[in-house]
Amino acid sequence: MRRIRVIGIGAGHPEYLTVQAIAALNEVDAFFVADKGDTKDDLVELRRHICERYITDPDYRFVELPDPVRGTGEYRGAVTQWHAERAALWGKAIAANLADGATGAFLAWGDPSLYDSTLRILDTILADDPNAFEYDVLPGITAISVLTARHRIVLNGIGEPVLITTGRRLLDEWPRTGTVVVMLDGACAFQQLDPSTQIWWGAYLGTEHELLVAGTVGEVGDRIARVRAEARADHGWIMDTYLLRSVGE
């Protein structure tokens, strides 16, 4: 049977790879990479750089997968359809490019368990064809881990919970106590919170383009929104994460 390895490669820096991940890279015959267009070519190039750096026998190949465009309708329905289209493309690519007994891999930015669709898509393929392949998952360093390390802060308050959510849901889920980590916020929803709310923001974490800003929403909120917009315009894409706490937490 074909084997697929989903390898967490950390949040940007090539040295964030674990020893386990490096060993797994050296077992792979074909790397499957979603091609998200010219604006994200550097994400593909980083994956190539990681392979060139750590693989001792360069007898492997990259298979670039065209990425379907996500629809603009109702959010959950659009994402479900997008995943289904991805699953159809990936299933055909794996069957066409990976011989029986060979090993393929998907290199997941950060950790495969956190706001990444790879596992859901592979499970969708297996739901239609349980014998298509077997797969395992290797964890990676998350953007949250890098964010807290770079700002030198503890993730949680003493005895307090941590909520991980998206910008789209932030205002509905904003708690009275605890820490909130927000990922995927293109609208800078934090600007609508109490100005005294503490925020630690980071973008392109672990890369040469890393950006860090910290303070209260009132002090740095507008600055973060401006820096974020400028960086996205410069690079054509952005990955950012931020952590929020109410005053006194």
Automatic annotation (TrEMBL):
Q: In what pathway does it function?
A: Cofactor biosynthesis; adenosylcobalamin biosynthesis
Official protein name in the record: Precorrin 6A synthase
Query: Which SUPFAM superfamilies does its entry note?
Result: Tetrapyrrole methylase (SSF53790)
Spell out where the chain crosses the membrane: none
Q: Does the keyword Methyltransferase apply?
A: yes
Per its UniProt record, what InterPro entries does this chain match?
A: 4pyrrol_Mease, 4pyrrol_Methylase_sf, 4pyrrole_Mease_sub1, 4pyrrole_Mease_sub2, CobF
**Keywords for the protein's UniProt record, in alphabetical order:** Cobalamin biosynthesis, Methyltransferase, S-adenosyl-L-methionine, Transferase
Please provide the Gene Ontology terms (biological process) for this protein. Answer: cobalamin biosynthetic process; methylation
Query: Domain Tetrapyrrole methylase, which positions?
Result: 5-220
Q: Which Pfam families match?
A: TP_methylase
GO MF terms on file? precorrin-6A synthase (deacetylating) activity
